[in-house]
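Data card: per-record layout.
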Amino acid sequence: MFTQEDILEIVRLFPPERVIESDSLDDLPPLILSLSGEVFLTQKHVLHKFNQAVQSNASRIPVSSLSQELSVDHEVILKLVRASPELVFFSADSKRIITKMDRDALWTQVQNMSYKRPVELETFAKDNDISLQSLEASIPRPDSPPQWNAPRFETGPDNRRYIVSPMYLVEIQDKVRSLLDDALAKAEHRTIAPHDLPGTPPTWFILRQVQSHLRQSESESGWSVYNTTDSVECIPKESILRTRDEEIAQLLQGSIPCIDLQQFAERYPDLYPTVRDVENEFSNLSMPAEIEVMGPTAISRRWLEQFVKECLHSIYNYGYADITTKILEGFPFHCQGEVLTKMRQLLSGYQGAQILEIHFADKFALTKEHHKSMCSKIYSESRHQARRHWEGMNDGNEPDPKFQATEVIGPSDASEPGILLHAILKEVAKDAELEYLDEITSLEIKDEELFSQFWNDRVPARVSIYTQGLNSIDDPKLNGQLCELLCGYLLKELVPDTLTRARSQGLTRSRKTRKNMQKLEAKLKQGLVDLPKAVTAIEKFGKKQGVPELDNATLTDSKALLVNEMTRRMQKQSEGPVLFLTLVTVLLARQRPGVVYATGKFAPKLMKLLKQGMKSEDYEKLEKWKDLAKTGSLTAEDKERMKGMAGD
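The structure for this 648-residue chain is written out next.
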């Protein structure tokens, strides 16, 4: 007889893990040791209790709870769940059991979804907290007995598992067949996108059904099929040939300018595996009059001829044509230069074009006459710019004027005439600058002439007349005093005032005048006190400016004008000392060479120089007026007589 301990020892030799490696209940032992280790439970009893628990509970049951309830090891519970996919599912973490009521509802849900679209199991399992393995175990295997409309597996390119119902699969296959039959009948490219099919299936699924249909219909060789991220492209070979022929026809007719052979091969990979195959195709066309191959590009001669006629029409009507933009837009970079060269040759050699004398400028072709007209416009505007710059030199201290090409025709104009004008300017920029400089030179010459006249009227004559007057004074002391006075007047008043007035009147814009003025003003700032040096500096400035030397007749006239001016000013003068000084200066000028430049304090001394050349009664009047002027006692009658003596 066996004792209880003997039986337990025998059971320990076959632990639960040894009998739960399989998902089949056939491997479950007929006797199962209870959790207490003191009782054997029959397999039938455990199964009955398990089925009763999972079918009577509506909520999910923890594996540990059911293990306690059935008094069996939890590994036995796990085996029972794995072996019963038609009854229960595991939760995602395999710690809870989804009972039959909940399991059937979820299974019905996923089945219903599979009737309408492919269902990704992993996503469904995650969304519903189901073990993916439990869910997959519920799907019939390919070798299982057939079940009407039972879902079947589909594996996507990312190895994700999907299920679809046979009914949905048939619906998709019928739709795909219809679309392909229609495309084949019309020999048209057909794009099948997810939204074209029920349930918006993914593109890999669509591609699989397309390929399946073509295999079954034994028509794979008549199609080019490939998928993109958004669709499946299905192209009947007849459609490819027709599209290819239409594209070549467009090239021959001149509807398109060229065909890139590399891109052509990429568009029709089923017809041309390599670019060499495309080159051979065009070589075999035997149409050299219509097509010219430039490297990897086939050029339409008809298109070029049509473009030549279009350009000539524009040249006849407007004087110019843009011959470049269409070339740049229509041809690959590598052949644009060669095509442009051919375009110029065709234009120049076209019948009747020689009469127009076509000129090429940048991207344009234009008549010689139109080119000449535009050049004239540019040159005229260059001269206008020179005058504007000249007028803008207010005080003569601005930098030398410079030609600004961008100002000649204003801001960049996007219109064709504006672009053409810029192209011509670029071509004749140096000539336009010469026009500008010539105009500046002309304005400088005129400015220098006006300055010379202005300078001559104010400085050289006075310097000469005042110097002659000074030299007529024999008294060394008086001569020295008047010499110092005259030097100060020339350097501090006459020359600076004359230069300031010249600037204000815009007479110092010439580069030569500004340069010579700067040198003269620099010497004046050195504080010259020597009259001969001051006179020399003034005369040197005049020679550099090209001021003509004054002849005796001019000096005589200038002196007369100066004396007359002094006499006229006396008529408006009322101050006695000023009247007396002016009278003495005028009378002395009539007796001696030149005019003495003096101030009031020198009037008495200068008056003494008049004594020998005047009547005694007139000199006595001078002495009387001198005393009265000194005391401010001159009467109105005295002043009128003084003015009268100056005017005699």
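Known properties of this structure: The longest strand covers residues 223-227. The chain has four domains: 4-142, 166-238, 254-356, 446-647.

See the next section for split statistics.
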